[in-house]
Q: What sequence folds into this?
């Protein structure tokens, strides 16, 4: 029986995670769920954003279903005692190096995009962001140098760090439309020169995957000019952080955006942490108004990557698409005058679509 650690976290996290858990249990009823505290909730209950008890529950699980962390009242608090230290600690502890961020415009939601409908209709891409290296993890200093206040950041990548995420992206592209765009700043950064070299070397192993190299500033423009030209994008940490948020906003609502943070392969499977990217949204927390689509689609990624349940993943994704097309939709996706669905009623609609499609998939023991 597969074990799932459920870390709902803060803000809207408990509501959207509960919706995702209901849908996941609908298609894989033999799963065993184990709840644990993280973020501000864990600080309140355990005095730390990532308790040892939570780490132990995650270590014993096949995957982590994650909500969101953060909240007011932490200005001036040391980084290791902020709620966000919970998820950063999980990434480090479990070596979660590949962040997978699908960005899809669902049929019927084209009008919600800030771009013209003819530009976004049919957009379906995945950004693979390297998650554990680069500028965010380099040495940092802030202080006086020769009487001038100076800030320094160090950008470090090893060939091995680049290669493992690039190989993952090639494999992902091979299973989709066989196109991979590698994004760097090769004309300025020596780290990008190494990145491009590693990508080019690995491309020889994937002759069936069409590869293009693109500078990050051009990529930012192409995403708004013609997002449908992309299939799989692979890039380093900071570029991926920025571009994946841009891509999510193009789809019309960040509430529909899922993600997976994956570690080393375990045979055909990977341990991972699965979360929507919508954040804690404290202004609507506890009101049953949040859009759970991103959390539910994150559960589909969990089924695919960590459980190998590809039929279950496809069933969830199809049910979400159908529910979004038919309605009701949550407030972030409603047109003026439309009645908004609640978090729980949208989950009900997804479960009804699953029933209609007779998509119940037996779990493997």
A:
């Amino acid at each position: 029986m597969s074990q799932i650690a459920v870390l709902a976290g803060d803000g809207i996290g408990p509501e959207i995670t509960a919706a995702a858990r209901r849908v996941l249990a609908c298609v894989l009823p033999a799963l065993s769920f184990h709840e644990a505290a993280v973020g501000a909730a864990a600080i309140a209950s355990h005095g730390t954003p990532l308790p040892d008890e939570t780490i132990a529950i995650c270590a014993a699980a096949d995957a982590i279903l994650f909500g969101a962390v953060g909240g007011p009242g932490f200005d001036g608090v040391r980084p290791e005692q902020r709620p966000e230290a919970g998820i950063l600690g999980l990434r480090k502890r479990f070596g979660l190096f590949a962040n997978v961020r699908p960005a899809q415009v669902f049929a019927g939601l084209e009008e919600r995009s800030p771009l013209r409908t003819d530009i976004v209709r049919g957009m379906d891409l995945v950004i693979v962001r390297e998650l554990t290296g680069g500028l965010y993890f380099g040495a940092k200093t802030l202080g006086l140098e020769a009487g001038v206040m100076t800030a320094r950041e160090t950008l470090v990548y090893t060939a091995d760090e680049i290669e493992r995420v690039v190989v993952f992206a090639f494999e992902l592209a091979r299973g989709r439309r066989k196109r991979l765009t590698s994004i760097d700043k090769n004309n300025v950064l020596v780290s990008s020169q190494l990145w491009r070299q590693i990508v080019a070397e690995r491309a020889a192993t994937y002759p069936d995957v069409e590869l293009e190299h693109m500078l990050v500033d051009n990529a930012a423009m192409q995403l708004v000019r013609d997002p449908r030209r992309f299939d799989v994008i692979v890039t380093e940490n900071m570029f991926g952080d920025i571009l994946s948020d841009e891509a999510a906003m193009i789809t019309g609502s960040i509430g529909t955006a899922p993600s997976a943070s994956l570690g080393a392969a375990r045979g055909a499977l990977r341990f991972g942490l699965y979360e929507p990217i919508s954040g804690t949204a404290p202004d609507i927390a506890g009101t049953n108004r949040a859009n759970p689509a991103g959390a539910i689609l994150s559960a589909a990624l969990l089924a695919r990557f960590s459980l190998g349940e590809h039929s279950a993943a496809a069933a969830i994704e199809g049910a979400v698409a159908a529910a979004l097309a038919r309605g009701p939709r949550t407030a972030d996706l409603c047109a003026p005058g439309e009645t908004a669905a609640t978090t729980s009623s949208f989950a009900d609609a997804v479960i009804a679509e699953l029933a209609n499609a007779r998509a119940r998939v037996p779990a493997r023991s």
User: Anything to note?
Assistant: The longest strand covers residues 3-9.
